[in-house]
């Protein structure tokens, strides 16, 4: 069987700057796959291109057996691929519930949407308790929960998370990472971009290390965690 997501020789440029240089990777159904790497490695650019916000200058992206690299972003969401972006991008003046409902914009099944809204509140009770509050009053960790909840409202088969742990306290980070495992258990496939390599690899079935726009290493999460060069470069060990 082919992978749920396949990225083949992807190339993405900003003008003359090549940010992603022929990277290839795949995500099998049911897996958590992590992309790790330092600032500027091309992780965010890769996710934005998969979700149709940027167009590649080369290569191919396949999702569930169909090529999507020239499909419109809203259509990609409808096909079951959701993106929780870096920096969360919530709408501060809208209420928590309004933010969540935006994630369901493409759906035509109101009963299913209500069920999933409740599921988001079950996953993150604080969202339910404050459903009428403006999202801008939330802390960073709460906004991250909201961004994840909003992405889940499209009932995605594949959820892409861009640096969900960024700026969070260790406790909140643990909470978010536990949720990643919980969503996997419930059947969602996850592509997780992180600078926090330790947290990301611990939960990953498979991982890819990106450096200046290229995949330099890949392996099971467990293997990468004990890999010498990963430990030196990303886990701060001598
Ligand atoms: P970070 O963790 O800092 O987001 P990243 O691995 O996600 O890093 P990208 O944001 O994808 O990396 O950036 C990859 C390269 O593309 C970098 O060299 C960056 O400076 C460049 N880049 C990113 N966005 C733009 C842009 N809008 N215009 C020009 N260059 C850009």
UniProtKB/TrEMBL annotation:
Q: Which CDD domains match?
A: ABC_TM1139_LivF_branched
**Which Pfam families does this one have?**
ABC_tran (PF00005)
Query: What organism is listed for this UniProt entry?
Result: Kribbella sindirgiensis
Native organism taxonomy: Bacteria, Bacillati, Actinomycetota, Actinomycetes, Propionibacteriales
Q: Which Gene3D superfamilies match?
A: P-loop containing nucleotide triphosphate hydrolases
Q: At the top level of its lineage, which domain of life is listed? A: Bacteria
Keyword check for ATP-binding: yes
Q: Does the keyword Cell division apply?
A: no
Entry protein name = ABC transporter ATP-binding protein
Biological process (GO) annotations?
A: L-amino acid transport
List the signal peptide residues: none
- SMART domains, per database record: AAA (SM00382)
Family under the similarity heading: Belongs to the ABC transporter superfamily.
Q: Which residues form the ABC transporter domain?
A: 5-237
UniProt xrefs under InterPro entries: AAA+_ATPase (IPR003593), ABC_branched_ATPase_LivF/BraG (IPR030660), ABC_transporter-like_ATP-bd (IPR003439), ABC_transporter-like_CS (IPR017871), BCAA_Transport_ATP-bd_LivF (IPR052156), P-loop_NTPase (IPR027417)
GO molecular function terms noted in the UniProt entry: ATP binding; ATP hydrolysis activity; branched-chain amino acid transmembrane transporter activity
Q: Which UniProt keywords apply?
A: Amino-acid transport, ATP-binding, Nucleotide-binding, Transport
């Amino acid at each position: 069987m082919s992978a749920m997501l396949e990225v083949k020789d992807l190339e993405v440029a900003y003008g003359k700057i090549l940010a992603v240089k022929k990277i290839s990777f795949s995500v099998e159904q049911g897996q958590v796959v992590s992309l790790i790497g330092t600032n500027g490695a091309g992780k965010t650019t890769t996710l934005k291109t998969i979700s149709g916000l940027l167009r590649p200058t080369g290569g191919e992206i396949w999702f569930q057996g169909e090529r999507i690299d020239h499909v419109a972003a809203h259509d990609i969401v409808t096909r079951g691929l959701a993106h929780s972006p870096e920096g969360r991008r919530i709408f501060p003046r809208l209420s928590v519930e309004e933010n969540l409902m935006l994630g369901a914009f493409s759906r035509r099944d109101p009963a299913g949407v209500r069920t999933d809204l409740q599921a988001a509140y079950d996953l993150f009770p604080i969202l339910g308790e404050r459903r009428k509050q403006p999202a801008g009053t939330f802390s960073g960790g709460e906004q991250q929960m909201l961004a994840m909840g909003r992405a889940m409202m499209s009932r995605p088969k594949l959820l892409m998370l861009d640096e969900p742990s960024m700026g969070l306290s260790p406790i909140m980070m643990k909470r978010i990472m536990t949720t990643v495992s919980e969503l996997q258990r419930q059947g969602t496939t996850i592509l997780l971009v992180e600078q926090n390599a330790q947290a990301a690899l611990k939960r990953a079935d498979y991982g890819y290390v990106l450096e200046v726009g290229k995949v330099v290493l890949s392996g099971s999460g467990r293997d990468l965690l004990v890999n010498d060069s990963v430990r030196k470069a990303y886990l701060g060990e001598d």
